[in-house]
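The records we work with from here on pair a chain with its fold. Taken together, the tokens spell out the fold as the letters spell out the chain. The record below shows the convention in full.
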Amino acid sequence: MNEMTCPADAAEIAALSPRERLVLAATRLFCSHGISATGVDAVLREAGVAKMTLYKIFGSKDRLVEAVLEEEGKRWRDWFLPALTEGPEPAREKLDRIFPLLKEWFQREDFYGCPFINAVGEHDKSDPRMRELALRHKAEVLDAIARLAGEAGAQEPGSLSHQIGLLIDGAIVAAMVTRQPALADVAAQACGAVLDAALPSTIVK
């Protein structure tokens, strides 16, 4: 999968199951307006689904939120991780793809930041459910980066992946706030310096 895609026209949406329409509608509304600001009725209108159907499938708005995060996270990873890791290029060159890929995402009209960061920010900080979903998503991304870092010769690939993860999170939030995709280029420079310091000089491009 080379890009993030979702049904766009009326015929495609009409062919979806009620569950799929609810998740699609909730994803659009939660991402563009926020979870707390989006009521169940707005999701129902967007999806063209009865309230009873929503509660039969999900049981509550919170369960719908969790379904949205799980599916949106999978869709994003299915785009990002293959684009990052596949191909015959050396591991360092693949690591250098991180922020150009993020810049592509930042340039999309439907970029509203990371849904996991947004959800954790909106929800009760004493409730662990949003954090657990966010951490599972983040772990998959960091594990892929750590594997590449190990292949590139990093002595502590796990630590290096967390350093890059902080740059990723910072770039996502900054791009969301400023609407400036070019901030990915600034983060790429910082990431390059981190990689240069952490990888053997014979591996560095």
About this structure: The mean pLDDT is 91. The two ends are 28 Å apart (CA to CA). The chain has eleven helices and no strands.
